[in-house]
Amino acid sequence: MDGLRCLQGTLALVSLLLLPLATTLPIFANAVPFNLTTIPFDEGYNPLFGDGNLVRSPDGKGVRLLLDRFTGSGFISSSLYNHGFFSAKIKLPSDYTAGICVAFYTSNADVFEKNHDELDIEFLGNTEGKPWRFQTNMYGNGSTNRGREERYRLWFDPTQDFHRYSILWTPNNIIFYVDEVPIREVIRKEAMGGDYPSKPMSLYATIWDASSWATNGGKAGVNYKYAPFVAEFKDLVLEGCPADPIQQLPVAEACAEKLSYLTSQDYSVISRVRRAAMRRFRQRYMYYSYCYDSLRYPVPQPECDILATEKARFKDTGRLKFGGSHKKQPKRRSRNRGATTDNQADV
């Protein structure tokens, strides 16, 4: 009997693996959470701006960031970190959110004004009834003239519940996660030189008025009739080596033990199943990639792995044909670049 149950379990697992990834992606995203250690807000973070609009949760483990007509708000990690895993569960504002940017990112711009590093997850609001979109970006050594944006849609509504968003940064690679699904990996290439982030960074979270660019190229701004806009953060994770950006001791030597710990964790390995989920996500939900934007970069940036099948789906602007969905849109939709249907989700 036990042997029969074992066989049935094996067959069920095989059947699951054979399901289309469009079905298994959401299941995988919530099935095996990372083994993470969370910390109370005051143990690892400080208010950054808009103090009155930063509200700690009653249990001290999370915060609400508010944007009103007077100010946005934000927080910053108490330390800078030399590499690390930075993560939080986030719930975004709902209803009309045009012009709003909710950002979760690492940066050292306050220390290195002209040659800063940065890793971004930026959520870009939208008009009522339209889904949120978001982008990831990377800068190294002040290379802000070489933006490395990718933009995406989601397979869920990020305003209805909390989802985990994470950034892994090591000397060799960077991985952006949504829940446990890796959505982007940047592998360090020698040709990148200083464009690969290498200096200690702080972790930031902010909500602010980005009316000039966030939604439809700035055509839809913040409408404060719907204020206050509230972004919630909880289950905060800071795993990294605290570092003084001007210390004399070689950073690699000082942080070797912590780096070894980071690279041994589950989130540092993209398994075959996760890589398949990442590929499926990018096929279905990525609608812009700088790697395929030949108008900006006639020669792709050195970290780009150009896939012929992927390139065929993108215009020379790096945007998906048919305005951000793989399904052809009605011809009545605008073809103006600033008004493309980037925000149409087939969730």
UniProtKB/TrEMBL annotation:
Cellular location(s): Secreted, Cell wall; Secreted, Extracellular space, Apoplast
PTM text: Contains at least one intrachain disulfide bond essential for its enzymatic activity.
UniProt biased composition (Polar residues): 337-347
Coiled-coil blocks: none
Keywords assigned by UniProt, alphabetized: Apoplast, Cell wall, Cell wall biogenesis/degradation, Disulfide bond, Glycosidase, Hydrolase, Secreted, Signal, Transferase
EC number: 2.4.1.207
Broad class of where this protein is predominantly found: secreted
One annotated Gene Ontology cellular component of this protein: apoplast
Segment forming the signal sequence: 1-24
Matches recorded under Pfam families: Glyco_hydro_16, XET_C
Keyword Disulfide bond: yes
GO biological process terms on file: cell wall biogenesis; cell wall organization; xyloglucan metabolic process
One of the record's GO molecular function terms: xyloglucan:xyloglucosyl transferase activity
Cited InterPro entries: Beta-glucanase-like, Beta-glucanase/XTH, ConA-like_dom_sf, XET_C, XTH
Annotated catalytic residues: 118 (nucleophile), 122 (proton donor)
Region of interest (Disordered), residue spans: 319-347
Annotated GH16 domain residues: 32-233
Basic residues composition-biased segments: 324-336
Family: Belongs to the glycosyl hydrolase 16 family.
Biological role stated in the UniProt entry: Catalyzes xyloglucan endohydrolysis (XEH) and/or endotransglycosylation (XET). Cleaves and religates xyloglucan polymers, an essential constituent of the primary cell wall, and thereby participates in cell wall construction of growing tissues.
Protein name in the entry: Xyloglucan endotransglucosylase/hydrolase
Naturally occurring in which organism (per UniProt): Rubus argutus
